[in-house]
């Protein structure tokens, strides 16, 4: 018998099967069940993959019981408060934080790659003016694969780097164009004089032909504090282990599809209300509640087993203590309340919900703590970003995680096409 193994006994016939226990550097051990079906003639059954490790990875670590999140071993608290989003991108792609010259080169490369092919721009005209930006974004990223067919076969590190930096640089441009097309207003081209995050805000707000920024509250320029707030949100969204959209990206990668098609599939998966679309739903719900006086009414509805109403922005599949990203955003929200001109009315409603939920046994016993979606909406609203752009913001931040996961999968010689099996219960 192996030292680190589990033995399963089939009580129907007394047969025993032994499987190796694999140890990671951190987190739960896993049982290697790769030969379970040929050994036993049975499948394991795990709907939703609640107890299944689909891969090994060196990218992101989460300890849900401790509320811990690390990229390449570095705590998210350190990255979000001491490093920029581009530094975080470099870390994920290269496994170490950049030096001064490395960051400068990376920054300049992304600035120059932010432009999209003129032929791709005409695709936006095929969508109705009221198309949701996520639909346009997903379709356009799929089309981007046809403009860069050479990435279908990648042979060396330089090719991987070019492919990754290209999609990372172009996603904000495509997202901003999708937004402006939904309003029927002219596109604003990228500006290589601006940083990654400021450039995106500029493409969202600026008037054509000038530097004046189009803002709802009369600001004539983008504030440094606005760039810092959005940059932090991008960092907090950069990667999150094997979540639903990342699993989709890896699954599509396993078929040999173009990397940008895999990214487009991740965008579509992220759009769901149970995933990235939740941040849009949080603000919509706060607006629906309308006033602090009605908060307890909706809390009672959330606790009523016969009512299908549920509070958006609470609880998480992995975090059972608190969401560390939410704590960072809560602190940022409080720090920037005056500087960002946050909506005090929505903050008052959200604050009352948070106060009740954090002290109510119903929520505590069910680990229903505020998650990242609960706080992002209020900050994004202060940045004059409309609700239908909340999830595209998520996409911009998460693209680096998706493409890093795609690269890791493609470099793994043990990778196979994703092919789960089923428990057949039909006729």
UniProtKB/TrEMBL annotation:
<dbReference type="InterPro" id="IPR010953">
    <property type="entry name" value="Citrate_synthase_typ-I"/>
</dbReference>
<feature type="active site">
    <location>
        <position position="373"/>
    </location>
</feature>
<dbReference type="InterPro" id="IPR016143">
    <property type="entry name" value="Citrate_synth-like_sm_a-sub"/>
</dbReference>
<dbReference type="Pfam" id="PF00285">
    <property type="entry name" value="Citrate_synt"/>
</dbReference>
<dbReference type="InterPro" id="IPR036969">
    <property type="entry name" value="Citrate_synthase_sf"/>
</dbReference>
<feature type="active site">
    <location>
        <position position="316"/>
    </location>
</feature>
<keyword id="KW-0808">Transferase</keyword>
<comment type="pathway">
    <text>Carbohydrate metabolism; tricarboxylic acid cycle; isocitrate from oxaloacetate: step 1/2.</text>
</comment>
<dbReference type="InterPro" id="IPR024176">
    <property type="entry name" value="Citrate_synthase_bac-typ"/>
</dbReference>
<dbReference type="GO" id="GO:0006099">
    <property type="term" value="P:tricarboxylic acid cycle"/>
</dbReference>
<dbReference type="GO" id="GO:0036440">
    <property type="term" value="F:citrate synthase activity"/>
</dbReference>
<dbReference type="InterPro" id="IPR019810">
    <property type="entry name" value="Citrate_synthase_AS"/>
</dbReference>
<dbReference type="InterPro" id="IPR016142">
    <property type="entry name" value="Citrate_synth-like_lrg_a-sub"/>
</dbReference>
<comment type="similarity">
    <text>Belongs to the citrate synthase family.</text>
</comment>
<keyword id="KW-0816">Tricarboxylic acid cycle</keyword>
<dbReference type="InterPro" id="IPR002020">
    <property type="entry name" value="Citrate_synthase"/>
</dbReference>
<protein>
    <recommendedName>
        <fullName>Citrate synthase</fullName>
    </recommendedName>
</protein>
<dbReference type="GO" id="GO:0005737">
    <property type="term" value="C:cytoplasm"/>
</dbReference>
């Amino acid at each position: 018998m192996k030292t680190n193994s589990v033995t399963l006994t089939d009580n129907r016939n007394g047969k025993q099967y032994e499987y190796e226990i694999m140890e990671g550097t951190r987190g739960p051990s896993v049982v290697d069940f790769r030969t379970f079906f040929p050994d036993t003639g049975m499948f394991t059954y795990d709907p939703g993959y609640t107890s299944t490790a689909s891969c090994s990875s060196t990218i992101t670590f989460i300890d849900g019981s401790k509320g811990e999140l690390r990229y390449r071993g570095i705590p998210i608290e350190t990255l979000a408060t001491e490093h920029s989003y581009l530094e975080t991108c470099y870390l994920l792609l290269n496994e170490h934080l950049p030096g001064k010259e490395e960051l400068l080169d990376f920054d300049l490369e992304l600035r120059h790659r932010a432009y999209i092919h003129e032929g791709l721009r005409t695709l936006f005209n095929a969508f109705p003016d009221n198309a949701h930006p996520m639909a346009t974004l997903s379709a356009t990223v799929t089309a981007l694969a046809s403009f860069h067919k050479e990435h279908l076969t990648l042979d060396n590190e330089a090719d991987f780097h070019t492919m990754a930096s290209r999609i990372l640089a172009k996603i904000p441009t495509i997202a901003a164009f999708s937004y402006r097309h939904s309003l029927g207003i002219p596109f604003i081209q990228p500006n290589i004089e601006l940083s990654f995050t400021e450039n995106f805000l500029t493409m969202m707000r600026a008037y054509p032909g000038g530097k004046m920024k189009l803002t709802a509250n009369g600001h004539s320029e983008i504030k440094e504090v606005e760039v810092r707030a959005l940059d932090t949100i991008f960092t907090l969204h950069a990667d999150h282990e094997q979540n639903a959209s990342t699993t989709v990206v890896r699954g599509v990668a396993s078929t040999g599809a173009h990397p940008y098609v895999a990214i487009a599939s991740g965008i579509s998966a992220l759009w769901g209300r149970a995933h990235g679309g939740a941040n849009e739903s949080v603000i919509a719900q706060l607006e629906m509640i309308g006033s602090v006086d009605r908060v307890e009414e909706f809390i009672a509805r959330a606790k009523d087993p016969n009512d299908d109403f549920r509070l958006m922005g609470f609880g998480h599949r992995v975090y059972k203590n608190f969401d560390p990203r939410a704590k960072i955003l809560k602190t940022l929200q409080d720090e920037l309340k005056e500087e960002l001109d946050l909506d005090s009315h929505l903050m008052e409603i959200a604050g009352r919900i948070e106060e009740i939920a954090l002290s109510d046994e119903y929520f505590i016993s069910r680990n229903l703590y505020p998650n990242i979606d609960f706080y992002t909406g209020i900050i994004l609203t202060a940045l004059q970003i409309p609700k239908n752009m909340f999830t595209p913001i998520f996409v911009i931040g998460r693209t680096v995680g998706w493409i890093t996961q795609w690269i890791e999968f493609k470099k793994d010689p043990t990778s196979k096409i994703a092919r789960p099996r089923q428990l057949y219960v039909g006729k």
